[in-house]
Design brief:
Blueprint: E1 3-9, E2 17-20, E3 28-32, E4 44-52, E5 63-65, E6 68-74, E7 83-102, E8 112-126, E9 144-145, E10 153-155, E11 158-159, E12 167-177, E13 180-181, E14 185-191, E15 194-195, E16 200-204
Parallel strand pairs: 6-16
Antiparallel strand pairs: 1-4, 2-3, 3-7, 4-5, 6-9, 6-10, 7-8, 7-12, 11-15, 12-13, 12-14
């Protein structure tokens, strides 16, 4: 008797990840990216090991990351005379938000299909506190990572490098010195990266 072994993780998640299996065909994972970063998952898969039999011994299933991971970091120059207080960090663009991954027998054939793009904003960080209030998070020379404990953007691979496809990163911040805070400033940066599966990206400001 011959067997095929395959693996994916996490298990089915309501309204996010579903698995469809049809007799005689490899399963298809369908994933929808949650809008809140804290709800997003790191989807893993292994290329199926086909036609195995008992005397093949242990079957090795090497898990691979199906999504791209993104975070935003910011820091200040030690020479600046001001303190900076970031109030929000938002990535906006036209991203792949739903897609299917067929667990094919060859790595090159395991690719995302049936992709749906959506205009969406992903909030990495928001803080309504004034710079002089408790809860403010001033920038440091070492920097602040806005992913926090689990706030990474786990995105279906999306090419934002093509002409007209660039995403934008919008940062709202204020400066303060001597207990006096400035008005809020808004700075927008273009993000023209091809976000590929299995890679981790960090935008450094």
């Amino acid at each position: 008797d011959l067997y095929t072994f395959l693996a994916y993780a996490p298990a089915t998640i309501e309204n996010v990840l579903s698995v469809a299996a049809v007799d005689g065909k490899n399963p298809t994972l369908t994933y929808t990216v949650p809008s809140a970063l804290a709800d997003q998952k790191d989807v893993l898969y292994a290329v199926p090991q086909v036609d195995r039999k008992k005397d093949n011994g242990t079957v090795a299933l090497q898990m691979k990351h199906a999504l791209a991971r993104l975070t935003v970091k910011a820091k200040v120059n030690a020479a600046t005379p001001f303190n900076y207080h970031v109030k929000s960090v938002v990535l906006g663009g036209n991203f792949n938000t739903t897609g299917s991954l067929v667990l094919a027998n060859q790595e090159t054939a395991t690719t995302w299909t049936s992709l749906t793009k959506t205009d969406v904003d992903y909030t990495f960080y928001t803080n309504a506190a004034k710079a002089t209030e408790a809860g403010a998070t001033p920038l440091t020379v070492e920097g602040v990572d806005y992913a926090g404990a689990n706030n990474y953007l786990m995105m279906i691979p999306t090419d934002c490098s093509a002409e007209g496809a660039a995403a934008t990163l919008t940062v709202v911040y204020s400066t303060y010195a001597g207990g006096i805070e400035s008005i809020d400033y808004t700075k927008t940066f273009p993000v023209n990266t091809n976000f590929e599966a299995g890679k981790a990206y960090a935008i450094a400001l």
